[in-house]
């Protein structure tokens, strides 16, 4: 398979008129701000990326980095209330941010679907699993008879590996275990054969053995249907397991983006280094100490000027103060590697040197 | 009321000596039903757990949710009344001590909780929270409680000026530091930490793990750290106990256990941990356990893991495997262990 382009803009892409390119999902300069009594929360601030069918993108970041807000933004779930969404989201040639909410509603569930972190709160406790799946199906297939929809629900439960689907279809969410509930939610998301599946922390609430089952399931279903998948997680291990591409977010912006092998073998951003170095790993001999990232993530109301990571960055001093004042653009790492982009003021030589001398030995 | 000064001049535990001994510990939660609230069954949360914690070491307890690790932790600090078995702290039986008789011991045994949001009273200032142990135990400090609290805050990487602030003004990592400062107030000998870092982001998690490590070296603490994250447990523990459905299935030194696990459950658990390296994805062999952990209300007979085990034979359904020592200091409860050392 030809590897699709991943080239991302500089974060200040001007609004285009038509679909930007052939990418299946293309997000351009997405900004999602919330008005609060304390000030404007810039939850997502100029995010640009693309994703093709059959690929899985992992969005990684700590809590408050804007990854969940991004996914809700793509799904068009921010419309009501105080959220201000600007920028463009192109899905298969259709722009969604400025589209008619009714049109987005038609696409939601059918063309794009979402799996949430906690299936117990995402499912209605009062209706049986089967009824909830059936409802999701019939909303988009109004002509389908109730009985056919029920058969479809059983078929979907079987497909996600629930034993005795014809019996379990009448159970309520509380009668399912955590892993089964997550399977049922995946069945609900996939009932209309969506082309884009967004999974927000799909395995965070699960035990490792069940997590492995669910990740395998998502991967198999993706292979089967050829859909595009966005996985949002804080766990770099999960991303390595499932994603083709990785996007590292911090304070609502993209810090680094590229093919998974590249980002893991040659990470470029000091924040990515920090994440990799601070994790204890099961396959690593014990070191004396973990190497944490000093300080705390910033408030999204007062995002530091310049590179948002500079107050926690050990190497910010090497950029002659540019990190403190100038927002670094997202640029390709080098000419051989145009798909791997990074937003950092360090020179490529400095990054190379710091990575091989300081960072790599600790990984 | 005692009037000792802190740090209490108690007998310092000698490293390597048994500080805490747990034997055949059982906790069943009754399930009641009907008008008369007759007991119709029991959740067998902890069902015969035995281990020893030596002074100065860290014992890690791992397992999936519902395996009884949190209940075990709460039994150790006597927040729950054991159904059977015994707990000995410094040689003294504390299994059924009354609340009053337990109180002096609370100075020596402290707990750090998982959720730094619900374990701190939102209406109390940090000074009140961290100073509470001094007041409750009637401990007089040399330069007053405020000074002692400020020293504790500094020890845990917070600023003494935080004394008058409220918990909501702090981030998750800082709150966990407040919880740690409170646990350390009376210079305990043993700290039971239930998922101390699982609610924190990775970069903050590393800060707290390092803090626990530093404090252990500085104050000679003994830890029991309960966690579901095998990578964290590998990093912090000297010895590790793996629990499954209320029982310890494997117990051993960290290196021995992680290099060559003996119990099939441990092997499967470790193979399921995602590793942040896409290249390893293809290389390693993953053992996929099917299904979920069975209910502790009605656990499978004999070996509790036999319903999910790929090596299960008839004997596993008939006879419960005892915990036996296969390598020096490394125990396993399995009829057909993995990585078994060849005899002789």
Automatic annotation (TrEMBL), chain A:
Gene Ontology molecular function, alphabetical: ATP binding; ATP hydrolysis activity
Coiled coil: none
Gene3D superfamilies: P-loop containing nucleotide triphosphate hydrolases (3.40.50.300)
Ranges for region Disordered: 1-20
UniProt-listed PROSITE patterns: ABC_TRANSPORTER_1, ABC_TRANSPORTER_2
Chief location bin: membrane
Record-linked Pfam families: ABC_tran, oligo_HPY
CDD domains, alphabetized: ABC_NikE_OppD_transporters
Segment forming the signal sequence: none
SUPFAM superfamilies: P-loop containing nucleoside triphosphate hydrolases
Protein topology in the membrane: Peripheral membrane protein
Family recorded in the similarity comment: Belongs to the ABC transporter superfamily.
Protein name per UniProt: Peptide/nickel transport system ATP-binding protein
Species annotation: Streptacidiphilus jiangxiensis
Taxonomic lineage of the native organism: Bacteria, Bacillati, Actinomycetota, Actinomycetes, Kitasatosporales
UniProtKB/TrEMBL annotation, chain B:
SMART domains listed in its UniProt record: AAA
Keywords of the record: ATP-binding, Nucleotide-binding, Transport
Superkingdom, natural source: Bacteria
Organism: Streptacidiphilus jiangxiensis
Full protein name: Oligopeptide transport system ATP-binding protein
NCBIfam families linked to this entry: oligo_HPY, PRK11308.1
A Pfam family this chain is assigned to: oligo_HPY
Domain ABC transporter: 20-270
SUPFAM superfamilies linked to this entry: P-loop containing nucleoside triphosphate hydrolases
Gene Ontology biological process terms, A to Z: peptide transport; transmembrane transport
GO molecular function: ATP binding; ATP hydrolysis activity
Chain ranges passing through the membrane: none
Sequence similarity: Belongs to the ABC transporter superfamily.
ATP-binding as UniProt keyword: yes
């Amino acid at each position: 398979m030809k590897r699709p382009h991943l080239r991302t803009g500089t974060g200040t892409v001007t609004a285009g008129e038509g679909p930007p390119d052939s990418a299946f999902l293309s997000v351009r300069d997405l900004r999602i701000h919330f008005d609060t009594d304390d000030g404007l929360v810039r939850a997502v601030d100029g995010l640009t990326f693309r994703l093709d069918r059959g690929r899985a993108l992992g969005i990684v970041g700590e809590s408050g980095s804007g990854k969940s807000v991004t996914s809700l933004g793509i799904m068009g779930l921010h419309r009501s209330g105080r959220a201000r969404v600007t920028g463009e989201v192109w899905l298969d040639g259709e722009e969604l941010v400025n589209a008619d909410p009714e049109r987005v509603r038609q696409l939601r569930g059918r063309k794009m679907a979402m799996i949430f972190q906690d299936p117990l709160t995402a499912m209605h406790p009062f209706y049986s699993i089967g009824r909830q799946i059936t409802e999701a199906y019939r909303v988009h297939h109004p002509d389908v008879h109730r009985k056919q929809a029920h058969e479809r629900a059983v078929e979907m439960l079987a497909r996600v590996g629930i034993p005795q689907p014809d019996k379990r279809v009448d159970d309520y969410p509380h009668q399912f275990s955590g892993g089964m509930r997550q399977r049922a939610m995946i069945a609900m998301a996939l009932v209309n054969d969506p082309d884009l599946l967004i999974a927000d922390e799909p395995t965070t609430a699960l035990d490792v053995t069940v997590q492995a089952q669910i990740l395998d399931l998502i991967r198999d279903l993706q292979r089967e249907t050829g859909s595009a998948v966005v996985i949002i997680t804080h766990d770099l291990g999960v991303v390595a397991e499932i994603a083709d591409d990785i996007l590292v977010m911090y304070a609502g912006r993209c810090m680094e983006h590229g093919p998974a092998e590249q980002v893991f073998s040659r990470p470029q951003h000091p924040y990515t280094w920090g994440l990799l170095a601070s994790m204890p790993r099961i396959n690593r001999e014990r070191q004396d100490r973990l190497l944490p990232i000093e300080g705390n993530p910033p408030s999204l109301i007062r995002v530091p000027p310049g590179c948002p990571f500079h107050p926690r960055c050990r190497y910010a001093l090497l950029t002659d103060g540019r990190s403190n004042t100038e927002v670094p653009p997202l640029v390709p790492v080098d000419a051989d590697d145009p798909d791997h982009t990074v937003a950092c003021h360090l020179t490529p030589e400095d990054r190379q040197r710091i990575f091989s001398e300081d960072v790599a030995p600790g990984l | 009321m005692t009037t000792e000064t802190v740090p209490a001049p108690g007998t310092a535990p000698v490293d390597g000596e048994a500080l805490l001994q747990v034997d055949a510990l059982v906790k069943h939660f009754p399930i009641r039903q009907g008008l008369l609230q007759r007991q119709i069954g029991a959740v067998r949360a902890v069902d015969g757990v035995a281990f020893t914690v030596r002074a100065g070491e860290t014992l890690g307890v791992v397992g999936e949710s519902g395996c009884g690790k949190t209940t075990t932790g709460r039994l150790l600090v006597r927040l729950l009344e054991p159904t059977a078995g015994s707990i000995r702290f410094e040689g003294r039986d504390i299994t059924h001590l009354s609340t009053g008789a337990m109180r002096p011991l609370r100075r020596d045994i402290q707990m750090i909780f998982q959720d730094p949001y619900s374990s701190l009273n939102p209406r109390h200032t940090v000074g009140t929270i961290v100073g509470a142990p001094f007041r409750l135990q009637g401990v007089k400090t040399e330069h007053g409680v405020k000074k002692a609290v400020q020293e504790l805050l500094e020890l845990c990487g917070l600023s003494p000026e935080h004394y008058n602030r409220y918990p909501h003004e702090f981030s998750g990592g800082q709150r966990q530091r407040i919880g740690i400062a409170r646990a350390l107030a009376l210079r305990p000998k043993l700290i039971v930490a239930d998922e101390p870092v699982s609610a924190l982001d990775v970069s903050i998690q590393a800060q707290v793990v390092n803090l626990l490590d530093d404090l252990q070296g500085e104050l000679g603490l003994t830890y029991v750290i309960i966690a579901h994250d095998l990578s964290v447990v590998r990093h912090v523990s000297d010895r590790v106990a793996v629990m499954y459905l209320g029982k310890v299935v494997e117990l051993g030194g960290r290196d021995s256990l992680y290099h060559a696990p003996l119990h099939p459950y441990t092997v499967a658990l470790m193979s399921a941990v995602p590793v942040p390296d896409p290249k390893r994805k293809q290389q390693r062999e993953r053992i996929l356990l099917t299904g979920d952990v069975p209910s502790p209300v009605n656990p499978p007979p004999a070996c509790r893991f036999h319903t999910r085990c790929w090596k299960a034979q008839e004997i596993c359904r008939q006879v419960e495997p005892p915990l036996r020592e296969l390598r020096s200091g490394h125990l396993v409860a399995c009829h057909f262990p993995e990585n078994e050392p060849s005899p002789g």
